[in-house]
Amino acid sequence: MKRWFLLIAIVVLVVAGIVALLFTQGEEEAREAVIGGVIDTPDPEPIEALPPETGGVEAIVMEPMIVMEEPVAEELPDEVITGELAFDDAFSEVESGKDLVQVYYGTNRVLLMDEAGAQIETEFPEGVYGELPGVLRYGKALIVIPPRHDPGRLETPLAGRATNEKRYVVLRTLQQSSYETVMAEVQAELARTEDKRTIVAYVHGFNTSFNKAARRAGQLKYDLGFTGPFFFFSWPSKTSAFGYTHAANLAEISYTQMTEFLADLARQDADRIIIIAHSMGTRVLTQGLVDLAAQDPQAAAKITKVILAAPDIDQRVFKERLLPKLGFLKNPITLYASDKDTALAASKEVNGLRRLGDASGGLKEIGNVIMIDASDVKSNLLNHTYFGDSVSIVDDFKSIISGPIAAKDRVKTLTRLAQEPQQLWKVKP
C-alpha cells in the first residue's frame, strides 16, 4: 500500500508539473509540445484611473522598467521606478470595491536585461526579476484584493496571468528602491502603526514566481488584518515543478542574502519581528537565522517569532544541526505539518529522507517546537499550500502575530492532541 501511495504521489507531482508547464507565463512552445496547440488567454481588462487622492495618476500601466544586472554589487539609484502609482497610504485605499494592499520586498533575483544591456519593457511586473541569484534588492508592491475575496484563498485564474482585478488577487505595480528609501518608509510606518511596532515577513517555497510571492504576501497581509510593515523575501526558486534539484541549490546560494535581509529588518525600530516561511523557503530562513546568530547575536535576538509551514527540510538535519543553533529565539518555533502533503511525500522520494512537514505516522515532539497537525485542512491538488489556503490556519497566524504564542492560549483555532507532551496540537478544521 505504501509503495502504491508513493507511486501515486510521484505521478501526481509529474502531472502537476505538466499543468504548471502548460500555464507557465510565456512558455508557448511548451504548451504546443504538450497539447499540440497554443492556449489563448483573454486580454487584460483596462485599469481604471485612480481617484485624485491617490496622487492624481491618470492611468495605471503595468509596464515595469528592466534594469541591467551586474555580476557584482553595484550602487543602485535611489528610485528605480517600475510602475507609476503613488504609494502614499496605498494600503488603506479602497477603489471601486477593491482593496489595495502595500507590501515591501527583498529579493536576490537578478534584474533582467537584453544582450545589449538595454532596458526591456514588459507588460507584467513579474518580468522584472529572473530566476538566477544576484545581489539583495528592496522595493514595494501594490496588490489588489478583489471585491469578493474569500479569506484564506489566493484567487488565481486557471490559465494565464492574474490581471482581472474584479476576480483575482493581482500584482498591479512594483517599485524598486534603495535600502535607505524603503527602510525610511518602514520606520515611518512603524511610528504610526497600531500593531505594536511589529514587522512581519513571508518567505515563499519552491516553484514560486516573484509575481505569485507578491500576491501571496498581499493576500496574507489582508487576511491577517495586519496594518504594520509586511515584507516578503523572494529567492530564485524556479517556476516549474521539474526544477526541484536546481531550486534546492539556489536555496543554498540564497542563504547569504537571507542573512543580510534578516539583519536589515533587525536594524529597524521594531519591537517584534515575525517570520513566516513555507516549504523549501524554510531552508533559506533557518540557515539564515543560524548564520545571523553566529555573526550578530544581538540582531538575531530581535527575531521574536518563527512560523514554519510545510517545511521541506530533512527531519534529522533540523533536529540535530539546525534546532540546537536556534536556541536564541525567545519563543518556541511554530511548525505546521500534514499527513496528506503529497508534495512532501514526493520530496522524500527525491531526497531519501522524511521531511519535517510530513506528519504521516503521527507527530512527534521535537525540542521546544510547537507541532501543529494540519492534516484535516484542505488545500490544492498536492495539499501543500494549506498555510495560506485555510481560514483556520490564517486565523491561527493572526493569533500568533497579535497575541501570545502559547498554543494553550489559542483555543479558538487549536485542539490538544494529547495531554502530554504539551507541544502537540491540531488545527480545528
Write the layout of secondary structure elements.
Blueprint: H1 2-23, H2 28-35, E1 79-81, E2 94-95, E3 98-111, E4 129-145, E5 170-177, H3 179-192, E6 198-203, H4 210-224, E7 230-234, H5 244-253, H6 255-266, E8 272-278, H7 281-295, H8 297-300, E9 303-309, H9 315-322, E10 333-337, H10 342-351, E11 369-373, H11 386-389, H12 391-402, E12 414-416, E13 424-427
Parallel strand pairs: 3-7, 6-7, 6-8, 8-9, 9-10, 10-11, 11-13
Antiparallel strand pairs: 1-5, 2-3, 3-4, 4-5, 12-13
Helix pairs in contact: 1-2, 1-10, 6-7
Architecture overview:
The chain has twelve helices and 13 strands. The protein is globular. The chain folds into two domains: 1-40; 47-427, Alpha/Beta hydrolase fold, catalytic domain (Rossmann fold). Helix content is 31%, strand content 20%. With 429 residues, the protein is of the alpha/beta class. Strands 1, 2, 3, 4, 5, 6, 7, 8, 9, 10, 11, 12 and 13 form a 13-stranded mixed sheet that branches. 46% of the residues are buried.
